[in-house]
Design goal:
The protein has 93 residues and is an alpha+beta fold. The protein has 2 helices and 3 strands; from the N terminus they run βββαα. It has helices at residues 51-63, 71-91, and strands at 9-16, 22-26, 31-33. The protein starts with 8 loop residues before the first strand and ends with a helix.
């Protein structure tokens, strides 16, 4: 069992990842957890949540990615990599 099927996971308290996926609030731990996390010692099955919603929460937990780098950082890294590749290619002759 994973957190996606636990009664302590609150579906209405959802935080979207900046890139994709989502985390949900766990009232047992008093923090946000991914739906794909393993169950804790106090895990209790939520029989009111259907399998479709459990699967959706689980998949969103697997896909959760919260990248906080601005796009400019990636562009600078790409430019530096291209310059380095050109220099190494010229020096190899």
């Amino acid at each position: 069992m994973t957190c996606s099927s636990c009664k302590y996971l609150k579906e209405e308290k959802r935080v979207e990842g900046k890139v994709c996926g989502a985390c949900y609030y766990c009232s047992n731990f008093d923090k946000y957890v991914k739906g794909s996390d393993n169950k804790c010692e106090k895990h209790e099955r939520n029989y009111g949540r259907n399998n479709y919603n459990c699967d959706k929460i689980y998949n969103e937990g697997l896909e959760y990615y919260d990248d906080d780098k601005p796009i400019a950082i990636y562009i600078v890294e790409l430019v530096l990599f291209v310059i380095l590749a050109i220099i190494l290619n010229i020096c190899s002759f």
